[in-house]
Each structure stands twice: as C-alpha cells, then as structure tokens.
Structures
1.
Amino acid sequence: MEIRELTPDHGALLAAFRCASTDEHYAQTAELMVTENLEPCLRLDPNLSAIGGWVDDELVAVAAWVTDGQAPPTWTLAVLAVALGHKKRGYGREMKLEVLGRALGAGVRTVVSVVHEDNSPMHWLNRNLPGGTFERDPVHPEYFLWSFRLGESP
Ligand SMILES: CC(C)(COP(=O)(O)OP(=O)(O)OC[C@H]1O[C@@H](n2cnc3c(N)ncnc32)[C@H](O)[C@@H]1OP(=O)(O)O)[C@@H](O)C(=O)NCCC(=O)NCCS
C-alpha cells in the first residue's frame, strides 16, 4: 500500500469510498465522515489532516486527524477506515502506525481515538498495538476513548 496525503482535490474518490457493511452501524458513521464531511472539512479546517492508502490506483484506506494546536499537541483521529473488500489485510494497522509515526515526528505526546463499544475490529486493532490504553467516555458511555502516549515508555 502506498500512503499519500489526501487533499480536497480527492473529493470524488472520497465520495465513492465504502467501508461499512450493512451490519456495522458504527462503521456507517465512519463512512459518512469520509464520503460527506472530509472533503469540505479539509477545505475549511487548517487543523485537519488526512492520508490515503492506495493499492493499484484504488483508494483502499483513509485516516484523518485533528490537532488541538497546544504545546505539546494532542491529535484526535477523526476517522480510520479501510474499504470494503480490503479489510483484514493489515492496511488498518499500517495506517494507524503511519499516523502514530507522523505524530511522534511532529512532537505530539498523545493520539486519541473515539471507538464505539460495538466496534470490535477497531478495538482489536488498537489492542494489538503497543502503548494504547482505553477508558469509557464519561460523556458518551457507549464509546471508549483510546489513548496512545508517544515519546515515553509505556
Ligand atoms: C477497523 C478497521 C479500520 C480495521 O482495518 P483492517 O485493515 O481490517 O485491520 P487490520 O487488517 O490492519 O487488522 C489489525 C488487527 O486487528 C484485528 N482485526 C481487525 N479486524 C478484525 C476482524 N474483523 N476480526 C478479527 N480481528 C480483526 C486483527 O487482530 C489484526 O491483527 P492481526 O493481523 O495480528 O491478527 C476496519 O474494520 C474498518 O474500516 N472498519 C469500518 C470503519 C470504522 O469503523 N472505523 C473505526 C472508527 S473511525
């Protein structure tokens, strides 16, 4: 998989991206984030960044995150998604590791993601990476907050 920056110019590709099967209600939120929100948000929000993963000229994975602009900054993942037909090939983990690597290089200390309690694939992916901790979201208890601390021993 080749990982490159996503820009508003990729709007048509983003609009066509499908990552949610019919039984994955939590993934439909992620799909809408990619298909409807990402292109306009990339135009408008200077704190939002996104990368795409391509295989044979097909966009197979998307990750986007927001920085809070603090010192040191915290990044919050807006979405991490792998296209239908391309899951369970390691692309999701590769994208998450790319985000964590970029965060480390940018001096970020914490990368946070919000994961629905039913979203087993995302919980498994996070559990299989080093350095992650999770707690139930006190405001939205059907979600967990996953945190990866960078630049220090776990
Ligand atoms: C969550 C998601 C990104 C995972 O992507 P993926 O490319 O399928 O995951 P990977 O192949 O990289 O798997 C990484 C690890 O997670 C685990 N895993 C992921 N999906 C799994 C599944 N359906 N069943 C069992 N284990 C799974 C595996 O343990 C794997 O580790 P392993 O290779 O050592 O066994 C993908 O399922 C997806 O796009 N879901 C819809 C969008 C979404 O809900 N995103 C999260 C909220 S923004």
Note: The first helix runs from residue 11 to 15.
2.
Amino acid sequence: MQEKLVMVFMAVVLAFVALIGKITYINASKGSGYTKIVLEQQQYDSRVIPYKRGDIVDCNGTRIATSERVYNVILDVYVMLSDEKYEKPTTEVLETVFGIPEDTVREIIEERPDSRYEILAKKISYEKAQEFEAIEEDDENYSDVRGIWLEEDYQRSYPYGRLASDVVGFVVGTNEGAIGIESAYNDILNGTNGREYGYFNDDASIERTVKASKNGNTVVSTIDVTLQSMVEQCIREFNEAHAGEARPGQLGSKNTAVMIMDPNTGAILTEASYPDFDLNNPRDLSILYSGEQWSAMSEEEQLTAMNDIWRNFCVSDTFEPGSTVKPMTVAAGLESGILRGDETYDCYGSLHVGDYDISCHQKTGHGTETVQDAVAFSCNVAMMHMAEKIGVDHFLRYQHIFGFGEYTGIDLPGEAYTEELLFNKENMLDVNLATCSFGQGFNVTMTQVAAAFCSLVNGGYYYQPHVVKQIQDGDGKVVEIKDPVLLRKTVSAETSEQLKPYLRAVLEYGTGINAMVPGYDIGGKTGTAEKLPREAENYVLSFIGCAPLENPEVVVYVVIDEPNVARQETSQYVLELSQKIMAQAFPYLDITMKEDYVPEETPAPEEQTENNGASEDYTSYSENYEDTYSNMDGAYIDEDYTPDLDGWAEGMPLEYQVPYPEEESL
Ligand SMILES: [Zn+2]
C-alpha cells in the first residue's frame, strides 16, 4: 500500500511539474468528473507535449528569433454530444470566442460524432486562451459548455521583423528551418517532443505517465543587433534616395549588401542585404511587387521571386570583384618573391596584351607610378604588368590561397560553388591573366572577398567566417563555444605589413579619399566592376576597408549591385555609403582612433581631384577587348561539395618557393 501511495504521489507530481497547460486547464475548471472523462481517451491516443524550439540571440543576448506559446482549439465531439444540453452553448462559445462557424461544427458532428480530438483552430493567442479560461471557470453562466479544451503549441516569431532577414532565416511549419541560421542550426535549435499517456489501473482509477519534452538549445550569433540596425538604416536611406531614378518603378539598387567582420576571429558582426523581407511574413514581397503585379504572376514566377529575395546575397551570389582584389595581386607578387615593392610602372592609358589593347580606367594614363600609387589610383596597367611577372601558376595559386574558387565554410546554407568561375592553368591565356589582375574575369562571393581581405590586413591569418559564437541550453548554460577556426596562412606578416601603406594611400590621396572618416587610420580599396554582358553597362560598385590599419579591429565591405542611377560606374555612391556606415559603426564599436587626432568642425566631403578619377572618368577597360569569359554572375549552389582546405593551412608547398629574383626591372 505504501508503495502504491508513493506511485500515485509521483504521478501527481509529474502531472503538475511536467504537464503543461491543457490538463491543468481542464482540472481547474471542471473538477474530477470531467478529468476522468478526458483522461479516459488517453488510453486510446497518447498526446504529444511539444518542445520549445530554442531562441536565436545576438552577441549581446538580444532575442532575434523566439518561440511563443500559442494554443490549438480542440473539440471532444463525444463529450459535447454526451448530453444534448451541451451542444448549443458549446457551439456558441466556439463561434463567439474563437470565430469558428456553427456550420463547421455541425459538419464535424455529422461526420465524426464519436471523435475525441478535432483541431478547430490553431495558434490562438494567450489573450484568447485567457478569455476562454474565464468562460471555463464561470459555472453560473457556462456550466453546459463541454468538450472544448486548449492544446499548447508554439509559434516562431521574430521581434525585429526584417532585421538580418536572410542571415537569421525563418521556419516552415513550426520547427523546420528554411534558410539562414534557422536552417544551418536546425538540429541544435530543435528539441524532443514529450508524450503523455493515460490508462486505467486495476481499481479502475486513472493513472497517467508523462515523458517530458526537451526544449531546444539557444544559438548565440556573432551578429550585433544595434550595429546591424545602423547599417540597414544606411542601406535603406541610400535605396530610398535613388528609387526609380534611372529605372522607373525599381528600388535604389538591384542589391545593396554590407558585411562587417572582426578580422581577428572571422566573426561576422553585421551581414545585411537589401531588398529584405519580414521574417514574420516571409512570403510578403510587397517591397518589390504591388498586389496587382504579384497576383498577375504565375505560381512558378512567385516562387522564383521568393527564392531570389530569400537568397543571402553575401553568401550565395557571385560577381566579378573588380579592383578590391588588386591588393591580393600585389600580395601574390610580394609573397612569391617576384615583386619587391620598389618597382615603378608607366601607365599610358592602356596596355597591349595578346591581340588586345586593354584600357586603364583613366584613359589619359597615370604616368610613372610606384606600387603604392598603382594601388592608390587603382591603375589597371600597373596590375597587368605585375601579373605578367607573377605568371599564371603563381597567380592562380594565390587566387586559391585567398579562397577564391573555394568554399569559405561559413556556417550558413547555400554558399556559392565558385570553383569553375576561375580560370585554370589549361584555359588561362595572357589576356585573361591581365584582366584577372584587376578583378575581372572571375567570380567571387562577398564572403570570400571579406575573409581574404581580413587575412591580408591581420598578418596573414585566414579565419573561417562565421555567424554563430556559442550554443546555450534552455537555462542559458553554455554547452558549446565556437572558437575561431584558422584555416590557413595566406601571406606572411611582412607582406601584410608592406601592403598597409598602400591601403592607407587609397584613402589619403587615391580613389577612396571620399570614404575617409576623420580620426581613424583607415586602409581600404575601391572597386568598380562592369557586369556581363559588358554592353549592358551595369556595374557592381564596392569598397572594402579596415581600421585601425596598424592593428585592424574591424573590416567593412560594402557592395552596391547596379545602383539605380544614370551613371552606375560613379564610385562616389559607394564611397558615400561606406563613409556613412563607418562614421556610425566605428564609434559604436569603440574602434581605436588616431592618437594625435584633434576633432575639428565636421568638414564637408572633399571633391574628387583629377588624379583619383575612378569615379568621374571611369573608362571601360574592355572597350577594345572582346571577352572570352562567359560565366554570367549569379548564384551557384552545390551542397555536396566538401572542400579540403587543410592542405593550404600547412603553409606554402615547397615546389612553389621561388628564389628571390636577382635582377628584376620593370
Ligand atoms: Zn593606369
């Protein structure tokens, strides 16, 4: 007897501790008689106790995805029909409280009068549940309302709506991550459902067994909600300012995307792209289409449009990088020992390579210039001279060392497959080598460029870019720390140091002068790439920079794909946007300022001078040159590719070590 008492006591404790919502609801309101009827059905079908999917929080613990408790309205038809006086008041409550039409209930009564479990409504709010609870407790007026009960469930919600939409991702159904972190960390976010069984014991009383559910873990992202909001606001303002300007009815750009990274860990603090969408309503594409336009589209067109907007531009879209990779060309030369850095070049506005005259962006030429000037003024001719010396083998090897053509391994789904978007030893002609030296003729992702640039300025350490830093259990206890993953060395510390003055020169007197933020020692590089097909005159504008250059704490990369302006090649657009973002982000991140800096009155942005004319007189390099490169930019996704990057981490293979050239002259 003693033992049995303990058992019963245990069962009661379990019921109160682990059982949530529905049974306590019924117990509290209708007493033991009702409980018995309800539990009677438990021997026929056990019930699932849903787990709560884990939250996604930002680097400071702010919730960006969470699961809220909701309720399903269940009708026990058998109970409602057990006495004819129950039917009318019960049907009335269903209609008045939950808006369930009487006809619906009547249909169910006719078809399934013995049913114990009919879901009449899903995802009822807590407020509605409270309203029903009051009715349940009101035995004076509602004593004949029988057979309705509420089952607990969860609904995914995103308190910041559109913020970092393609990074955070959303779920399909209740718990299936579709894109972003929701998808990449789906198994970690999900828990295990519990189950509740009810059965009769020997003396015909009810006993119940509960297997508690296990809630999912919390994923702590590296994304900073405040910084992300700042950046998205800047992006939105740019797009609003240029909406409909050259292409009526369209946004201010085909896409505007920004990544902010910690170069010393590979952590991504901000990753934004626009147009964005509301995570609470991901199928609403009203940012791009009017209701009329949308309903005129076929289902397939709608699906394509949704996939386009859901695709993470920073990870899945590829484009020709343009001049932002010029520092990598110089680095390849320095690192392989082919360049020393004290060379000079003569730019007369174009260079004859193979059968073509390939233009510099400045048609009048840059004259005689140092390596630093060549980077600062973004001279194509100097880069082509360098690439010729470097040669196909070294050039291609360094493309891969910098991660072009490789997966970065970022912890987000849908990373573009770029291996075939680079030339290889078999098909790279002299003319291809020449154009690749200044960033045309191969495709990259933003993530690849950002990670490569981080390594260039941090002493040569290529970290795996990532958006998640920690996993916590439901109680906030850390169960896993995602340490930074060093994939390989790209360049030596010496080469990294040697490049810094070149990157500084870009903002001091070169093409990036208008991105300068007073008080900070910024190094960077601009990029203007003409998209394929060249005759369409569409451009990708970009800027990548870091601060403080001496010991970089942050890298900012801004890309505007097809700005909606008359002259897309005007780099001023991306410089202004980058300047605005850095001017807000750097103080927020407490980036180290120049020691000797004395703040002045806010100076007006300087006018472009003649010599940094990348923006004002950009000339297509390909005017006299016919493209043989046919990889149109777009998304290339191959989930099966597993890159082997370990080899690179070992350092430079011996056969590639080149003796320092004795007599090099250019
Ligand atoms: Zn030039």
Note: The pocket of zinc ion is lined by residues 347, 360, 362, 365-366, 379-381 (CB under 6 Å).
3.
Amino acid sequence: MNRQGKTRLFTMLLCVCFITGFFLTTAFIIEHSDHDCIGHGCPVCVQIHLAENLLKQLSIVISCVAFASACLFALFNTFLPVIQNIFLVTPVTQKIRMNN
Ligand SMILES: [Zn+2]
C-alpha cells in the first residue's frame, strides 16, 4: 500500500471513530438521562457531563471542518481558475504564431 492509500485508510478510520464516538456518546446520554440520581457526586451525572462536554467539543470541530471545507471549495472552484487564467495566458498557450 502506497503512502496515499495509507493516508486514505487513516482518514477513513479517523472518520469512523469520530462518528462512532459521536453516536455512542449521544446514546449514553439518552440511555442514562433518567437514572436514579443519588445527588451530589453521582458518578452517572459526572459521566453525562463529560459526555456533554465531549459533544460540545465535537460540534466545534464539526463547525470548523465545515467552514474550512467551504473555504477550500470556494478557493478551488472560484479563485483558482481565475488565477490560472491570469498566469497561464501566454502566446504559447494562446497558440499564437510568432514568426518573424
Ligand atoms: Zn445522577
């Protein structure tokens, strides 16, 4: 497996772990939302708060990734063709004969 294949595999595994963690955390919160709370220092409540913080952090990461993806999409689909037209307009690319 070449380097690009390893990178794709690693990226896919990271995405699967990310999505699995998101859904398992949500399932944990839903499953234990109506537990028999013992009050201050309840271990289930502590785990629920940790899970909520994890979901908040994941939502921030998702927002950042969505914004970065939108910026890259705009860059490659809007600005890059314009830049290529500016810098790649030469007599050779225009197929202009320059005979003396
Ligand atoms: Zn509790």
Note: The chain has one domain: 3-94.
